[in-house]
Amino acid sequence: MVSKKKIKVLTKRVSVFYGDKQAIKDVNLEIYENQVTSLIGPSGCGKSTFLRCINRMNDTIDICRITGKVLIDNDDIYKATLDPVLLRARVGMVFQKPNPFPKSIFDNVAYGPQIHGLTNSKEELEDLVVNSLQKAGLFNEVKDRMNESGTSLSGGQQQRLCIARAIAVSPEIILMDEPCSALDPIATAVIEELIDELMQNYTIVIVTHSMQQAARVSQQTAYFHMGNLIEFGETSKIFQNPKNKQTQDYITGRIG
Amino acid sequence: MGLGSFCVLIILIATFITWYGNNKALRVNHALGKDLKLPSLPKYYSFYAILWLIIPSIILILTWYIAKPLILDVLVLSFISEDTIKNFSGDPSMLVDRVKSINIERPFPGTDTNLIEAAVYLKKTLERVQTFTFLSILSLGCFLSFIAIKKINPAFRARQIVEKYNVAILLVCSVVAIVTTIGIVFSLIFEALRFFDKIPLFDFLFGLSWSPQMAIREDQVASQGSFGAIPIFAGTLLITIIAMTVAIPVGLTSAIFLSQYSSPMTRSIIKPLLEILAGVPTVVYGFFAAITVGPFLKGLGDVFSLNIASESALAAGSVMGIMIIPFISSLSDDVISAVPQSLKDGSYAMGATKSETVKKVILPAALPGIVGAILLAISRAVGETMIVVMAAGIAANLTANPLEAVTTVTVQIVTLLIGDQEFDSAKTLAAFALGITLFVVTLMLNLFALRIVHKYREKYE
Amino acid sequence: MNKNTRIIAESLKKRNRSESTFRLMGLLGIISAISFLVIILTSIINEGKKAFVSTQIKLDIFFDSKILDPSNSGKITEIENANYQTLIKASLLNFFPDVKTRNDQRDLLSMISSSEQENLMRTLTNDISLMNTKKEFWLKSSSKYDVINKNPEMIDFAEEDRLISNQQLFWFNELKKDNRVNFGFNKIFFTAADSTEPEQAGIWGSVMGSFFTLFVTLLLSFPIAVAAGVFLEELAPKNRFTHFIEVNINNLAAVPSIIFGLLGLAIFLNVMHLPRSAPLVGGMVLALMTLPTIIIATRASLKAVPPSIREAAIGMGATKMQTVTHHVLPLSMPGISTGTIIGMSQALGESAPLLMIGMVAFIVDVPESFLDSSTVLPVQIYLWKSTAARGFVELTAAGVLVLLTFLILMNSFAIIIRKKFEKKW
Ligand SMILES: Nc1ncnc2c1ncn2[C@@H]1O[C@H](COP(=O)(O)OP(=O)(O)OP(=O)(O)O)[C@@H](O)[C@H]1O
Ligand SMILES: [Mg+2]
User: Fold this and answer.
1) Where are the domains of chain A?
2) CA-based angle A243:A249:A255, to the nearest 5?
3) Residue C28 contacts B where some CB pair is shorter than 8 Å
4) Can you say how many angstroms the Cα of residue C288 is from the centroid of all Cα atoms in its chain?
5) Distance between CA atoms of A220 and A236, rounded to whole angstroms?
6) What's the mean per-residue pLDDT of chain B?
7) Is the CB–ligand 1 distance for residue A61 below 6 Å?
8) Chain B residues with CB inside 8 Å of C26's CB?
9) Which of B167, B209, B409, C46 is deepest in the core (most CB within 10 A)?
């Protein structure tokens, strides 16, 4: 079983600096295809920073520098010939706070396909939007109000709208940075179910502060501490018998 | 006694009262012995006394200056003999004005001796009355503050009262803003109504011909002049449109570049430069338009055998546009920077390029704010005076051709009011009719724009 | 999946192109804004720097007692009232002996500014021993020659467009050949008030006018605005009335300046009968205009003082009023001063409302009080620009330079204050 897992993302000695401050230190990590990998660790340990390396979102921060290699399908995503635009179409992202554009629900989902020119006709676009909303489990709730503003939805709906927006461009990987931290338990449960379904078609990396959530949704877990990757392995193993003392302390709630 | 010496006197008296009040309070404190003390510091007691000196004085002085013209009228009319009044062709109040305007040392040759005598009498009496009034005011103030000092005793809490008065004074200062607005509205409405007595509102707002200068020669057949303001409104609109055509694209693109593309370093150089552009006084722009841009465009027109007036709307409008650029760019910069980072992140994470993010996410999100900024800029352009006074035409010209000279509301206000004016003529009053139109239009633009911008700020706070 | 990647990869070139076009547009916007600034400044500096010097002509003046004191009385009053023009004329004719007709002589004499007669008189009365001696003088030329001398391209103009005739140009060139023409510092420009003759007009009158006007403005607007700002920010209850005041202030900040002029005309002049053209009235009008700026700056810097300071003071038993006057206000003074200076520099550049209250008069005396008729810097610029004589163009530009210098000084001062006292709480 284990040997069959295909590595989707591989990081080699990745370090990230904000100015002089090092936020990630020599991290080597494998992320497997069609699995959910969760990143856990105390606040400020660099989970978001690491996540943002995978779609080069750190490029948008002026003072941020990165060394080492990030490979997707064995291809260096930081090589000069690769346009981040192309990369980000392959690696979608969902943020901590739902951030729908102040546009209609339809336009929110249609945003990606439109800028990338993925569809050739209006019908095709409509199909794609409906399809994405269905995959995100939101279609039934919004099918009568596609022209209303995306910001008029509830928090949980907004987050699913953002997921629909991300999957509309059919990415291979979806990064989620604490996607449920702004949501109530019911909305959280809905999203967690959704993640389970999405796993079939996408590789998912999720940052979370909730041990239960990590345990529920992910197959692999990585524990970060102060920029270091302390421990990485199958979720069940990490939670049942962590090898590292720090990890043990964290998941039992002694630090963090 | 003039206002100057009055002020000097009152300051001297106030200094004395401070000293005296302080002393008195200290003495009372001393008399009360060790355990008992006045409830407030000595300075509050003297401050309290000074309030009694200053506040009544200010009120009375203002009353005096308001009443002065009325007293003048009565004085003059009582002095001049009945016959002179009867012989005078106009209104008696104009006679008073004439007397007031006489320079006693060097009267205009041929002035009625009666009137000169009246002027001399007026000056002397007025001086005497004024001195008397000022001295009475001062004595009253001294008396009141003296009573206040008398009141110093342990049961009297001066600090509370002084602070209450202080708050009241601060309140009055903030009310100055309201008073100014009311002053503007009243002065405009009052004169404008007198204008609309002579010229119907409808003719003013919708008339197609504007030639107020004819009203100067009263003996002429068409002594009324014509006051149809449409050509002026059209000229103002034309110049505003030209200004906006220059300012909006340049201002907006600069704002986008500054907020999205430039490094902090370039930003820190460019922003002050734009601030300089904003700080250049409008006369300077006017001079530039009239001396450099106007002749340049005219010459350019000659090359292409186009007839461009040297005071063309294009010259004034484009320079006005330059003036507005920093206004639009700094307001839009603020507005664009207020768009939350999370929205931009959302767009970049979808794989959008910077320009796509700007065009499809940032600008639509910032649109209300930008519209507000543009409305404020329009209001600025409509009310701008010096550039058009120096570089636009004076004659009303109903045209949409930017190469011709047109005139604007502000130019007309200035031309109607500069130089000698008879205050009752339709010509002078027309300036106020234009003024109130300008005020109402800019007020609406401002209120609307400020509201939009305010709402926008709240949305992203 | 691969299909999408391919589509995107193919469209990338186009998207990147439109990206750089867009960036370029932004850059163009900035560049044009900056180049407008550069063009305006260089064109004004180019024109204006000429007015700081003026053309001088060297003449040998013989203080002839036969002309100056024909009765040989030796009385100063006699000498003071003598005709010094004749001296200049004699000296010129000495140089150009062939000029015979009265018309030609008059044309020749018009080369020297009429203001020099008085200067000669002063020199002589200060040192009477000069009588019947010959002395070399650099005399100021009249404006027309000055313009030609400063703009050599005008020499090639047709005679009727050139300000001076061919004959006059010939004389002028003769003097030049004899090294009798040069440029000297134009002192009059910095000491005199307006004049009908460009070479005798100066900026000082309007500088003083501006000074008196701004003094009144500062005196009125600063205390009122700070009081209003303190009240609204620190003491006022948040109710409808204070909200209305705020709306009023924000709106006043955007009312066209000329409207304030109309207010001044209708209320200060026509109702209150204050004198026309007086800095007092100008200052009052500008004060009303400047109020909103200072109020807004005051509130902003009060807001920047952290609440902890207020709490500390209140905790010590100070009243609200004492807290504000003893603690909060001093801390926000740098911000308030900066706002005030900026407001003042706006007021210094403002001219439209002053046109309405008669500060556009032609005034030849430097004003000495708040009630003297006067004009201000920007209005003087406007007046000179509206004057037809060619010599005023350079004066206008020089006036602009003086105005801009004052503005730069004021703003740098504001920046220094801001930098020096900038506090991060
Ligand atoms: N834009 C930035 N500029 C400078 N430093 C930053 C920036 N973003 C993050 N950091 C620093 O990098 C470190 C890691 O931050 P990061 O946001 O990745 O932590 P995190 O694990 O996601 O924390 P949390 O669980 O609170 O979201 C922190 O010390 C943070 O201060
Ligand atoms: Mg994080």
Assistant:
1) 7-101+172-251
2) 145
3) yes
4) 21
5) 8
6) 85
7) yes
8) 253-254, 256-257, 260-261
9) B409
Cα gap C52→B48, rounded to integer Å: 56
Contact status, residue A55 vs residue A175, Cβ threshold 8 Å: yes
Contact predicate A165/A112, CB 8 Å = yes
**H or E segment and range at residue A1:** none
B324 exposure class (CB count in 10 Å sphere: 0-12, 13-18, 19+): buried
* Distance, C-alpha B56 to centroid of its chain: 28
Q: Is C344 an 8 Å CB contact of chain B?
A: no
Distance CA A132, CA A202 (A): 13
Name residue, tokens 């963090």. A256
pLDDT in tens, C86-126: 888 888 888 888 888 888 888 888 888 888 888 888 888 88
- Residues in B touching A88 (Cβ below 8 Å): 348-351
Query: How far apart are the CA of A202 and the nearest CA of chain C, in angstroms?
Result: 11
pTM score: 0.85
Mean pLDDT computed over B8-19: 90
pLDDT per residue over C3-25, tens digit each?
788 888 888 889 999 999 999 99
Domain A7-101+172-251 CATH assignment equals 3.40.50.300: yes
Q: Where are the beta strands (DSSP E) in A140-254?
A: 173-177, 203-207, 220-225, 228-234
| DSSP-assigned beta bridge partners for residue A232 | A222
Give SS3 for A80. coil
Burial environment of residue A147 by CB neighbours within 10 A (0 to 12, 13 to 18, 19 or more)? exposed
Cα C292 from chain centroid? 24
Residue A220 in this model has a pLDDT that exceeds 80: yes
B63 pLDDT higher than 80: yes
State how far residue C396 is from chain A, nearest Cα, in angstroms: 48
Candidate from B355, B376, B414 with C-beta closest to C254: B376
Instruction: Test C8 with A86 for CB contact under 8 angstroms.
Output: yes
Return the DSSP state at A104: B
Element at A227 (helix H, strand E): none
Q: What is the pLDDT of residue B221?
A: 47
Q: Which of B15-19, B159-163, C223-227, C392-396 has the highest mean pLDDT?
A: C223-227
Alpha helix stretches (DSSP H) within A117-205:
122-135, 139-142, 155-167, 185-198
- Map residue A205 onto helix, strand or coil: strand
* Residue B241, token pair as written in the block: 């449109």
Alpha helices in C231-270 (DSSP H): 240-252, 257-263
Return the ∠ at Cα C247 (arms to C241 and C251), rounded to 5°: 145
The token duo for B168 is 């009241």
Mutation choice for B interface testing from A51, A60, A96, A165 by most B CBs within 10 A:
A60
Written as one letter, the residue type at B162 is V
State both tokens at A163. 């997921």
Report strand pairing: A203-207 vs A173-177. parallel
Per-domain boundaries in chain B: 3-156, 226-460
- What length is written for chain C? 425
- Cα separation, C280 vs C283, in Å, equals 5
In this predicted structure, what is the pLDDT of residue B93? 66
Interchain proximity B350–A99, CB inside 8 Å? no
Ligand 1 pocket, A95 CB below 6 A?
no
**Per-chain mean pLDDT for chain C:** 87
CATH for the stretch B226-460: 1.10.3720.10
Among protein residues, the one with the nearest Cα to ligand 1's atom 1 is A61
Report the alpha-carbon distance of residue C327 to residue C325 in Å, rounded. 6
b/e B70-90 (16+ beta carbons within 10 angstroms → b): eebbebbbebbeeeeeeeeee
What is the arrangement of strands in the sheet containing A36-40, beginning at the earlier edge strand?
A91-94, A173-177, A203-207, A36-40, A220-225, A228-234
Hey, what are A255's tokens? 């630090």
Lowest mean pLDDT among B36-40, B358-362, C180-184, C218-222: B36-40
